[in-house]
Predict the structure.
Amino acid sequence: MQAHIEKSFPAFHAAAKREIVADYSLLYTWEGADPKAQPIALLAHQDVVPVAPGTEKDWQQPPYDGVIADGFIWGRGSWDDKGNLYSMLEAAEAMAREGFRPKRTIYFAFGHDEETAGTAGAKNIAALLASRGVKLDFVVDEGLLITEGIMKGLEKPAALIGVAEKGYATLVLTAHATPGHSSMPPRQTAIGMMSAALARLEDHRLPMQIRGTVAEMFDTLAPEMSGFNRVVLSNLWLFKPLLLREFEKSGPTEAMVRTTTALTIFNAGDKDNVLPGNAAASVNFRLIPGDTQASVIDHVRDTIDNDRISITPFAGNTDPPPVTATANPSYQMLTKTIREIYPDVIVAPGLMIAATDSRHYAGITDSIFRFSPVRANSDDLKRFHGTNERLSIEGYADMIRFYRRLIENSAG
Ligand SMILES: [Zn+2]
């Protein structure tokens, strides 16, 4: 793939410096004419998720052949995230060929392990830039899309810019008990204690809240809405409980307003007539901005209320990264760029539910924007990490135009 990139974009490769980081990640530096201007970075990742075993036959085109047919580019990664990676390079290639030189330095940073946390690629690229004293004006990475029908009563498509991202915390709970023979069981067993603790955690989830970015998103979208939903969103002081009850009914909307609790692993016992000495379970929390790993651990300790259960956090846990301010010239520039290329859409700030590579850049920039310039309907969304992933040729052309305009507006 890297050979293909090099061969496909010769003018860009002549204009920019290419470095390999952590064996597989790519860092391009397109040096700006003004050394004093603050640099920016465009991010994408090279890796993809696998095709779920057994679903290969459901693909209309082979997942790894890059078939172009029926107006679409088919294959795993066409959306996530090679569409962004290649359209950035297409834009830069065309501009380099025309002799364009950015006013400020633009980094193109392409990690290779985003789907497994980015701890080799993105983290090391960000560390390398930090070691060189680089401070970025802003970072644009994959993220929220241009979607229709995301909210009842909103007819126009909405382009949501992810200015906030949820945090990630897995806690391993271990119940300690005395192992023994099952013929004389004590009142409390490891499995019984752990089951009770987990049931309590599911019953006492963290509270739903409308604050920060999500509140700002509603404020921006409400005036564009019609009917009852406009009334609801414009009068949250009155309708908040009603809205939250509605949000709680579906996973994606609930995830926007609460730190979620997901029981993911349970291990205990290995013989039917032996009481195990311990029982262990993993609980994965996705934190809304404002919550921290420490506050979640407090919540878990208070909720399970059992000092025979220990709580151990995973090493890879991350608090939500700082929220990017929308009262910020870069946000305005990005909004303007989106409106220029997609004149029919409403632009609003949003909360990114999943984690992206960009969080590793929090130390070298105050402004992270998670946005993929792709139109998607609810049918398309199933193709993400799913079967028949594809990107329309028309959509790809729009992405190229978007990145070109973004470079012009920010570094022209
Ligand atoms: Zn991705």
Q: What stands out?
A: The CA atoms of residues 21 and 125 lie 6 Å apart.
